[in-house]
Amino acid sequence: MPPLRHDAETFYAETHYERMVRRPGGSPRDEALAAAQLQIDELKVGFLDWLNQQLNQLSSALGELDADPAVTSRVERAYQVCAQVQDVGTTMGFSLVTFVAKTLCEVLESMKAGAIYDKEMIDCHINALLYVAKDPHRSLTQQQIVELSGGLRRLAGIASIIPGKNDA
Amino acid sequence: MKSTVNLRDLVILVADPSAYTRRVINGMLRGFGANKILEAEQSTGLFQALSSQKIGILLCDLQLPPHGGLALTRTIRGNADNENRTLPILLMTNNTSEKIVKNARDSGANMVVAKPMSPNSLYDRLGWIAFHPRPFVDTPNYFGPDRRFKIEGFPGGVGRRKGDSMVDVAEESGPALAQNDIDSLFTAARAGQS
């Protein structure tokens, strides 16, 4: 039996990061988290303005996409704007905004992978996003609007069907 | 006593295409005590930042333009002459499917954090990277932190890597439970059967 070949070297490298972070004098976890939450709360003041701007940009990007769904850069543009909304919604206390943006991102990702453009499905998502971004709906959770969240999940599932790829 | 994370005077580079997301992450890090935070909206020019000053950790979005966070991580890890080769890299992504996480791991990232992020998830990962360091592995087709989080050794001390060895097990020094405790467990079990 031939001897085992060892072609992998392992070594420990104490990084600058490890040395710095382990220094004494850091804030206790609870204090650090509370201070971070305070910083987030300060940012929340401008969040709604930012969110409305993003939704306008998203509506515009989806309008351009509708004009020619075959242009992949338009799908990508809409996806990027939607992903930005998804990325911060929950952090800023709007979990439903993140949820709807996530399902729209999934629909757009499916399109990037070859799924057929469906205007009604896109419209349904953008309308839902506009709906949950407004008072009093934005403070709701998925569990409080089961029909809407269930319906969007089903739509995202249907959108993931890519002709010729999902066929058994 | 629990360890604290000290980010004071550590240079942290946050790379994310969204200005608002960068602000949110920046805010969290400042809350944790960081005071030196650099931002980048794309990877172009990021290497200049890496070479011009000592960066402590890179927080990078998986979809960072133009080539994405995975490609950036591979480039940093792949350059043997680069002093930042062992730089801790925390990849941020809104898609935490198994495939994506595996790809992040195989690119050489230290860890993945899901977006939207909470202060808890970010703080814990920053702490984990500092207090639970993994050895680096250098192979012809991978350079980065050991992708195995739990190293338990191999029977007979023979493994795939030179450093693999038997797990040290302490000598047996008597029963783990006192005889009285064992007797009570049996008594309770019998009572449950009847």
Overview of the molecule:
The complex is a heterodimer of chains A (168) and B (194). Chain A is an all-alpha fold and 168 residues long. Chain A has a domain at 47-159: Four Helix Bundle (Hemerythrin (Met), subunit A), CATH 1.20.120.160. Chain A has seven helices and one strand. Chain A has helices at 16-21, 29-44, 47-67, 72-89, 95-112, 119-132, 146-159, and one strand at residues 9-11. In chain A, helix 3 (47-67) packs antiparallel against helix 4 and helix 6 runs antiparallel to helix 7. The mean pLDDT of chain A is 87. The longest helix of chain B has 15 residues, at 179-193. The mean pLDDT of chain B is 85. Chain B has one domain (1-194): Rossmann fold (3-Layer(aba) Sandwich), CATH 3.40.50.2300. In chain B, the strands form two sheets. In chain B, strands 2-1-3-4-5 form a five-stranded parallel β-sheet, sandwiched between helices. A two-stranded antiparallel ribbon of chain B has the order 6-7. Chain B is an alpha/beta fold and 194 residues long. In chain B, helix 4 (98-107) links the parallel strand 4 and strand 5. Chain B has six helices and seven strands, in the order E-H-E-H-E-H-E-H-E-H-E-E-H. At the A-B interface, strand 1, helix 1, helix 2, helix 4 and helix 5 of A face helix 1, helix 5 and strand 6 of B.
Distinctive features:
heterodimer, A: 168 residues, mainly alpha, Four Helix Bundle (Hemerythrin (Met), subunit A), 7 helices, extended, B: 194 residues, alpha/beta, Rossmann fold, five-stranded parallel beta sheet, 35% helix, elongated
